[in-house]
Amino acid sequence: MSSRRFEFTPTAAVEASRRRRHYIHCPACDASSERYLFHRSGSRFVQCRSCGLVYVDPIDPTEVVDFAFEPLEGVDLDNVRADFGAVLREVVRSHEHHTGRVPRSIVVFGQWDPTFAEADAGEGVDLVFGGSTTAPDVETVGDRLATADVVLLHRLVEGVAEPSPLLTDLRDRMGSHALLAVTFANMAALPNRVFRRRLRTLFDHQRFLYDADNLGILMWRNGFQRAANVRLRSRVSLGYTAARTGTSESLGKVLDAAGLDALTVTASTGIEMILFTPVADRDREQLSVIVPVFNEARYVADVLDALIEAELPIDREIVIVESNSTDGSREIVQRYEDMPGVTVIYEDSPKGKGRAVRRGLEAATGSIVLIQDADFEYDLDDYEALLEPIVRHRASFVLGSRSLGLDDWKVRQYASSPVKGFLMNFAQVVFAKTFNLLYQQNVSDINTMFKVFRRECVAGCHFEGDGFNFDIELVCKIVRNGYSPMEVPVNYVSRGFDEGKKINFLFDAYPSYFMLFKARLGQI
Question: Using an 8 Å Cβ cutoff, are 412 and 500 in contact?
């Protein structure tokens, strides 16, 4: 009796998949909780449930990634050169902005084309390339790392087999004054969110698909903190774009026949650059609580006493900005002048809550900043929940949402003015929906007072809002600076206008809503 056997000739992708048997924790946050997404080119892609990083798991630790750029039929080689030149110019500009001078030396690891060696970084700038096309090699650069002003990882962190050992080695060899510039395809950027299912090269040549937040977590765990975020524009041809996004072969032939395949445009493609600096002491954290005060004699002493006595997981400083109150608040605040950890700033006249908070930001010295009104609408016991994701580096920017949790409508309830309460609640929903549309986010409450963030979130931001519109401007510009907010449910009990509430629905709503658009289109 004859027998049948199933015969199968494995493809290169299948053979690669069989070699990948080493399971790993999340390379960014080291969590062990993941969910399966899909298979591609013999790789099993998963997503970390904690930080959202998409990565290959299991891996083949011996597998080597080729960092050489292979242009599609040569049509984009000139564009690749031009893009690398643009990256170098941004590196020089960012270093000059950060330090006040042009860098003398830039060391480059990562994506490589031989023509990159001919790139001009500017007069007096020495350009050094480390490693080969298949693996970054810190040893080849030798002592040049210790004196380099900038180390550029050009599309490196997405493909290198084990990013953490490389980053730790770089941190130990770099000078404390140096900047680390990382270019990568940000998966949270709009172009990548729209086309990610069609961007074949992302999955065929990358092990990790980062967004700015989980990349920041990876860098922090290896001794770096974010300093600035730069969105890059790329030169792309229609032919390369059609091939990269998996467009039909017939369209490619049409473009070729019409001579349009080499037509090049400059556009935002989701490629970004984030600048990092080495961290001297990663374990030292301090919270700066900014308290703007104007005519809050009824509550301010109790709020300040509660802040001083609160048990927090990190050290704190309290920055009080008193705006020349007329109800005795200034005299109350003066009693706290000489207390340890308390800084008091006096304004000559009230110029608005936004102006007061901006003064507080200038004086704050902590690594984390929290804004606290001088009343008890919000629960100070929520501080620990707000700080937890930031202290544990699961987020850099947290909003305390009044619209989340079991009691999901903890916003304004006015027994004496239910219509005004309804209008203000409705406006909050409109603000959140508009913000989500303009900034591609998914939050429920951007009007919340509880905004907690790392200082680097506002690095390079230019703020203009003096009134309550600053609350909106702060969120918008932090997001434009590359930081997406995490929401944490908080408690909230609204106080009435007869109890000192100052916001005016008619006069404050319009400038605050207009700020959503102004911050989106204007200067960061």
Answer: no
Please name the residue ranges forming H helices in 381-463: 383-391, 418-439
- The closest of 391, 388, 343 to 367, measured between CA atoms, is 391
pLDDT value of position 74? 47
Burial class of 488 by CB neighbour count within 10 A (0 to 12, 13 to 18, 19+): buried
Q: What's the pLDDT score for residue 331?
A: 95
| Amino acid 72: pLDDT | 42
Secondary element (H or E) of residue 517: helix 505-521
Q: Which residues of 204-223 are buried (b: 16+ CB within 10 A; e: fewer)?
A: ebbbbbbbbbbbbbbbbbbb
| Per-residue pLDDT tens over the stretch 186-224 | 888 877 777 666 655 566 667 889 998 899 889 988 999
Crossing angle of the two packed helices 469-480 and 418-439, in degrees rounded to 10: 20
Q: Long-range contact list for 106-109, CB < 8 A, 24+ apart? A: 106/148, 106/149, 106/150, 106/151, 106/152, 107/141, 107/144, 107/145, 107/148, 107/150, 107/151, 107/152, 108/152, 108/154, 109/136, 109/138, 109/151, 109/152, 109/153, 109/154, 109/156
H or E element: which one contains 125?
Answer: none
Give CA angle at 79 (56, 121), nearest 5°.
95
Facing residues of 400 across strands? 488
Alpha-carbon distance of 422 to 417, in angstroms, equals 9
Whole-number pLDDT of residue 315: 93
Return d(Cα 122, Cα 13) in angstroms, integer: 43
If we measure between CA atoms, which residue out of 488, 497, 476 comes closest to residue 390? 488
Distance CA 138, CA 166 (A): 8
pLDDT of residue 276: 92
pLDDT at 287: 95
Contact assessment for residue 76 and residue 49, using Cβ atoms and an 8 Å cutoff: no
Query: CA distances (Å), 391 to each of 39, 188, 284, 286, in order?
Result: 34, 23, 10, 10
Rounded to whole angstroms, how far apart are CA atoms 282 and 406? Answer: 35
User: Edge-to-edge, what's the strand order for the sheet holding 105-110?
Assistant: 126-129, 105-110, 150-154, 179-185, 264-278, 224-237
Determine the pLDDT at residue 61.
75
| 429 within 8 A of 182, measured Cβ to Cβ | no
* pLDDT of res. 500: 46
Q: Which pLDDT score, from 0 to 100, does residue 322 have?
A: 95
Q: Which residues of the chain have pLDDT under 50?
A: 71-75, 499-500
Quote the CA–CA distance of 277 and 268 in Å, as a whole number: 26
Residue 73: per-residue pLDDT: 46
Question: Which spans in 161-211 are helix H?
Answer: 163-173, 190-195, 200-204
- pLDDT for 107 equals 92
- φ, ψ for residue 13 (rounded to 5)? -65, -40
